[in-house]
Write a structure and sequence with these properties.
This protein is an all-alpha fold. The chain has one domain. The protein is built from 16 helices and no strands. Helix 6 packs across helix 9 and helix 14 runs antiparallel to helix 15. Keywords: Acyltransferase, Membrane, Transferase, Transmembrane, Transmembrane helix. Pfam families: Acyl_transf_3. InterPro entries: Acyl_transf_3_dom, Nod_factor_acetyltransferase.
Length: 342
């Protein structure tokens, strides 16, 4: 197989749809009652929702930016991350939450910000570390060294592997080595999470077309249902779990091709374009959900009504906060731009 470099593709609506599904499931199963009441469903969802998110993130991550632009991108991920992770850690020391901290110190706070993040903010921590490794590994040399590299003879015969493919393979080897060092050597990354980001990057650089890597066919949905009969497959760090991720993504791409009403489709895509505010602010509303939980469970004891109300509350509340930040100009200081992508 010949591996070729591909130029960045225009925005795919399907990816926004995937992000919408994954972020909605994240909010739903961050409700403690739902996770505790439906542990098998939680185990299944945790097998694919954040791995899928990381895979899409690896595919979309832009490593063609100059250093200055890349630094700004990192800054506007790091700043809201630090603010929200710090707030979440302080809150965990004050409220009787599951991740309660008994004795909050400056050292504990620094540890959670830079080494062991709490809550859903670990995703941003992982995104930044993986993104830095990706960028460094794929950053093209400049000046005389770049010209010399182009003129250097291939290490292998052209018929076996082109020089460009050798370079690409070398870059991915370096990228994987960086991730391995951060996961096994430093303990800063989950190996499984880093692997899914790496797979997304491989799909982008080696395949180029996300739809080719994940064919949206009806049979993937059928195979997914059969594969999920066995709960032993619910492990994102296993081959069986990776198959679940592949089948879920392919099945969702097939679902997107069906006749979804345009108004509903627009809502899904809007949510998918604005997952960062949901990731940042939804924990506020999932914590508040505990206060009205008993009332809604008396109305409908299975918890489904409670889940739907809470997810809608979290999405609307998160977007409401972001809208206020946009209206007051705070978004420029927090996100570096408007918080909501229209």
């Amino acid at each position: 197989m010949i591996i070729q470099m591909h130029k960045p593709k225009p925005r795919m609506e399907e990816l926004d749809f995937l992000k919408c599904v994954f972020i909605t499931l994240m909010i739903a199963f961050h409700l403690a009652y739902i996770g505790d009441t439906y542990p098998v469903a939680k185990q299944l969802v945790y097998t694919f929702h954040m791995p899928g998110f990381l895979l899409v993130s690896g595919y979309l991550f832009n490593v063609k930016k100059p250093w200055t632009a890349f630094g700004k991108t990192l800054l506007w991920i790091f700043l809201p991350y630090v603010i929200m992770e710090s707030s979440y850690t302080v809150m965990a020391s004050l409220l009787p939450v599951r991740e309660h901290i008994d004795h909050l110190t400056a050292g504990v706070l620094i540890d959670h910000i830079f080494l062991h993040p709490m809550g859903p903010y670990w995703y941003l921590h992982t995104l930044m570390l993986c993104g830095i490794c990706y960028y460094i590994a794929f950053r093209k040399p400049e000046g005389g060294f770049s010209s010399a590299l182009k003129q250097e003879k291939p290490l292998l015969p052209t018929k076996m592997m082109s020089w460009e493919n050798q370079v690409l393979l070398g870059r991915f080897t370096l990228f994987a080595l960086f991730l391995w060092l951060l996961s096994h050597g430093c303990g800063l990354l989950s190996t499984a999470n880093a692997a899914y980001f790496l797979v997304g990057a491989i799909v982008r650089q080696a395949v180029g077309n996300f739809r080719q890597a994940f064919p949206g066919r009806w049979w993937t949905a059928g195979l997914l249902m059969v594969w999920c009969i066995d709960p032993s497959h619910y492990d994102k760090a296993s081959f069986a779990g990776a198959c679940v991720v592949f089948l879920v993504i392919s099945s969702l791409l097939w679902v997107y091709q069906l006749g979804i009403p345009q108004s509903l489709r627009n809502l899904f895509l809007f949510i998918g374009r604005n997952t960062l505010p949901l990731l940042l602010f939804s924990p506020i509303f999932t914590i508040l959900a505990k206060y009205y939980q008993p009332l809604l469970l008396r109305i409908e004891p299975t918890g489904m009504f409670f889940m739907v109300v809470s997810v809608v509350f979290a999405i609307a509340g998160s977007f409401g906060i972001t809208w206020l930040m946009d209206a007051t100009g705070v978004s420029r200081l927090f996100f570096g731009k408007e918080g909501l992508n229209k």
